[in-house]
Specification:
Shape: elongated
Radius of gyration: 17 Å
Strand order of the largest sheet: 1-2
Order of helices and strands: EHE
Helix content: 10-25%
Distance between the termini: 41 Å
Largest sheet: 2 strands, parallel
Number of helices: 1
Structural class: alpha+beta
Strand content: 15-25%
Length: 59
């Protein structure tokens, strides 16, 4: 079984990351748990949406 752990904080000393690393160690040996890197995922803010779709998305 494979499990992806997502940590919402990008801080190096994040408490959430520490919890994820600890949880990873507690899974049975037959479970592959990996922390998913979200550092390159752009943040979404609906307040920045435009009324019209971006030119790049128009067909």
């Amino acid at each position: 079984m494979k499990i992806g752990l997502i940590v919402g904080s990008l801080r190096k000393e994040s408490w959430n990351k520490l919890v994820a690393l600890t949880a990873k160690e507690l899974f049975p040996e037959d479970v592959e748990a990996n922390i998913i890197d979200i550092s390159n995922v752009p943040l979404y803010n609906q307040d920045l949406d435009e009324d019209e779709p971006n030119e790049n998305f128009k067909k």
